Amino acid sequence: MNVVKLVVITLLGLLLSACAANSADPMIAFQGQSATQVYQRAKTALAAGHYEQAIKAYEALAVIYPFTPYSERAQLELAYSYYQENNSTAAQSTLNHFIQLYPRSRWIDYAYYLNAVVNMDQDRGWYLRYVPIDVALRDPGSMRQAYNDFDQFIRRFPQSRYVPDARQRLIYLRNTFAEYELQIADYYFRRKAYIAAANRAKDVVRNYQGAPAVEKALLLLIKSYRNLGLDDLATQSIAVYRLNFPGHPF
Length: 250
Hints:
The chain is mainly α and 250 residues long.
C-alpha cells in the first residue's frame, strides 16, 4: 500500500470517528462503550461544567442501557444538567419521572428539593428590574409555586440535609414577594391612586411582618392616608411605625 493510500485511509478513519463522536444518534456516538464508560463520560462532563455534553451522555445511557445500577442516580444528574442549561421544562419532567419511578429512593428528598429550586429560578431576576410597569407588575407565579414546594419539602423531609438551605430560600422568597407588593403600592402612589396604594401597603404590613419592605410600606401607608385626609389612620400608622422602628425622626 503506497503512502498516499495510507494517508487517505487514515484521514477517513479520523473523519468517521469524529462524525460518530458528534452524532445525535446515541447508538452511533457511544458505539462500543459500556454502561460504565458512558456514565463516567457523563459524570466527567458534569463535574467540568460541560452540561450540554453531560446531557448527551446521560440521555444516551438511558436509551442504550435503560436498566443499570447507574440509572437512578443518572436521572437526577440529568435533571441537574438540564437545570444548569436553563431547560426548566426538561428538568422538571425528568424529576417528575424520577419521583414516580423511584418513590423510595435514597435521593428522593433531593428530587423534591431540586424541583423547588428549578421553580424558583424560572422567574429569577425580574424583581431586581425596577423598570416600566409592564415588567414590574409581573406576578412571580413560578416563584410562588417554589415557595409552596419548599414549604412542603420541609414538612415532608424534616431531617433532610437540604432543609437549612430550603429555609433560607423561603425567607428570601418571602422578602421578594413583599418587595413586589411594595413596588405595586409605590406605582399606585406615584400616580396618585392613594386608596390602591394604601391597600397594597397595608397588605405588605399585614402579610410580611419582619420583611425589610415593611418599613417602607408603613411610610407609604402613612403618606397615602395623609393624602386621602385620613388623619386618624395616619396617626395610628405613625404609632405603629414608631413602635417597630423607633430610630426614625418623625
